[in-house]
Write a structure and sequence with these properties.
Helix content is 28%, strand content 15%. The chain is built from 5 helices and 6 strands, in the order E-H-E-H-E-E-E-E-H-H-H.
């Protein structure tokens, strides 16, 4: 499959602890102020499936203090599975067929508030990949959190 590298999406991501774990995920949604990025609509199914990955129980590389959205400056609070979660202090991982993706937990806000449209292969991985409560996903997150 040919990759479209857009706005830094789908570029190797070297942050956090992934290299220590022996793989290099592809970065998705690392947006900055005054950066152009692809916008568009995404399905409600995608949004509903993405949100649980942003819950602190399944994130990695958590920081003590959340950062506000770099695009609008807001402190972002999301309702995830009945919990009020302040976003902006962690990263998420998504397991696809061929790759693992790394994104900021603010990606949910970028999509909802700023109409950011992630690459199709990331959307497909969220919709059809291992869920946050799956054994495969938990094994990855537990390993990353062990070495961070």
């Amino acid at each position: 499959m040919a990759r479209r590298e857009r706005d830094g999406d789908l570029m190797p991501y070297g942050g956090c602890v992934d290299a220590d774990f022996g793989y290099e995920p592809l970065g998705i949604g690392w947006l900055r102020r005054k950066q152009d990025f692809v916008t568009g609509r995404v399905s409600a199914e995608f949004v509903a499936k993405l949100l649980p990955y942003c819950h602190p129980a399944v994130t990695v590389c958590r920081q003590r203090k959340p950062m506000p959205c770099p695009l609008c400056g807001e402190t972002v609070v999301a309702d995830i599975d009945g919990d009020s979660v302040v976003l902006g202090s962690a990263e998420i991982r998504i397991i696809g067929d061929d790759d693992i993706y790394a994104a900021p937990d603010l990606i949910c806000h970028y999509i909802a508030a700023h109409q950011y449209q992630p690459p199709a292969e990331f959307i497909q991985a969220v919709v059809s990949g291992p869920l946050p409560d799956s054994i495969e996903f938990r094994a990855l997150i537990n390993a990353l959190n062990t070495i961070s």
